[in-house]
C-alpha cells in the first residue's frame, strides 16, 4: 500500500497537477494539506473520476485537509481533540480496512507559528503539538497501525535544512519546536523517512522566492510519523521531488511511504 502526504497549497489552483500526480504516482491513500477551500468547493468530481473516494475538512481561504483513497474509510473524524474553541481545519482521520485488520491514517497541517514573538501564533503552535501528542498517546494504546501524515512545519534537525543559520530564529526550527517534535518520537512515533535513510539534502519544501528551488535551498517539514505497528509494515519511503519542477507547482512535494498490509 502506497500512502502519501502533500501540501497542495490550494487544490483548485493545482487541480491539474494533483490529477496528473494521482495518475502517475498512483497512491492508495493521499493526505492533502492547505486545500484552501470549503468542503463544497473541493473539486471532487475530477478526483472521483480517477477512482478515489474523497473526504475533506475544509476552510475558506486557508488551511483545510483532505483524504483521498482508493478504498472507502470505515470511519472519519474531523478536528484535533482537546480544544473545542479551535475552529481551524487542520486535522482529519480515516480508518481503513486492510487484510491485516485496520490502518488509521491522519492528514494534518500543523500551525506555522511565525512570527515566534507573536502572542497568539507561536503559543498556538506549541499548544497544538501538545494536543497532537495527547491524541497520539491515546491512539497508540489501541496498538493499531497509525500514520500521522502531513505538513508539520517542523525542521527536526540541522541536516533537514540547507542552512541552519538562516532558520535559527524561525518558529519551524526553534528549540522549543524541535523539542516538541522529539516528544512525539519519544512516545513511540517513528519518522518514516529518517528510518529508511540518513542522506542529507532531503527536502520537501522550497520557497518560491530567491531561486530556492533552483539552488536546492530547501527544508524537510513534511513527515510520515508511524506507530510501531505501522513501522513494522514499512517497506520504503521516497520524496517525489520532480513534482516541484512542474508548471504552477506547490512549494511542497509529496512524501511517500510504501507499506505491506497483506498478511
Give the arrangement of secondary structure elements.
Blueprint: E1 2-7, H1 15-25, E2 29-33, H2 44-48, E3 53-57, E4 65-69, E5 75-78, E6 91-98, E7 101-109, H3 121-140, E8 146-151, H4 164-167, H5 175-186, E9 190-191, H6 192-196, H7 212-215, E10 222-226, H8 228-231, E11 234-239, E12 255-259
Parallel strand pairs: 1-2, 7-8
Antiparallel strand pairs: 1-12, 2-4, 3-4, 5-6, 6-7, 8-10, 9-10, 11-12
Walkthrough of the structure:
- 45% of the residues are buried.
- This protein is 25% helix and 25% strand.
- The mean pLDDT is 97.
- The protein is of the alpha+beta class.
- Strands 3-4-2-1-12-11 form a six-stranded mixed sheet. Strands 5-6-7-8-10-9 form a six-stranded mixed sheet.
- Helix 3 runs parallel beside helix 5 (175-186).
- It has one domain (2-255): Deoxyribonuclease I, Chain A (4-Layer Sandwich).
- The longest helix has 20 residues, at 121-140.
- The chain is built from eight helices and twelve strands.
- Strand 6 and strand 7 form a beta hairpin.
Amino acid at each position: 500500500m502506497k500512502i502519501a502526504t502533500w501540501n497542495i497549497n490550494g487544490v483548485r489552483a493545482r487541480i491539474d497537477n494533483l490529477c496528473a500526480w494521482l495518475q502517475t504516482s498512483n497512491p492508495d491513500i493521499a493526505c492533502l494539506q492547505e486545500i484552501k477551500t470549503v468542503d463544497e468547493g473541493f473539486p471532487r468530481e475530477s478526483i472521483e473520476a480517477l477512482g478515489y473516494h474523497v473526504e475533506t475538512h475544509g476552510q475558506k481561504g486557508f488551511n483545510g485537509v483532505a483524504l483521498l483513497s482508493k478504498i472507502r474509510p470505515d470511519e472519519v473524524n474531523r478536528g484535533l481533540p482537546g480544544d473545542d474553541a479551535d475552529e481551524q481545519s487542520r486535522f482529519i482521520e480515516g480508518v481503513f480496512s486492510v487484510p491485516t485488520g485496520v490502518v488509521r491514517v491522519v492528514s494534518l497541517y500543523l500551525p506555522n507559528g511565525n512570527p515566534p514573538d507573536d502572542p497568539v501564533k507561536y503559543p498556538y503552535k506549541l499548544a497544538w503539538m501538545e494536543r497532537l501528542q495527547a491524541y497520539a498517546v491515546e491512539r497508540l494504546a489501541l496498538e493499531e497501525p497509525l500514520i500521522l501524515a502531513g505538513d508539520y512545519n517542523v525542521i527536526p534537525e540541522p541536516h533537514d535544512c540547507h542552512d541552519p543559520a538562516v532558520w535559527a530564529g524561525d518558529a519551524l526550527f526553534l528549540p522549543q519546536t524541535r523539542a516538541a517534535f522529539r516528544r512525539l518520537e519519544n512516545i513511540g512515533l517513528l519518522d518514516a523517512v529518517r528510518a529508511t535513510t540518513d542522506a542529507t539534502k532531503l527536502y520537501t519544501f522550497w520557497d518560491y522566492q530567491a531561486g530556492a528551488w533552483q539552488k536546492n535551498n530547501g527544508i524537510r517539514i513534511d513527515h510520515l510519523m508511524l506507530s510501531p505497528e505501522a513501522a513494522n509494515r514499512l517497506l520504503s519511503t521516497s520524496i517525489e521531488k520532480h513534482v516541484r519542477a512542474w508548471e504552477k507547482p506547490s512549494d511542497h512535494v509529496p512524501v511517500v511511504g510504501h507499506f505491506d498490509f497483506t498478511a
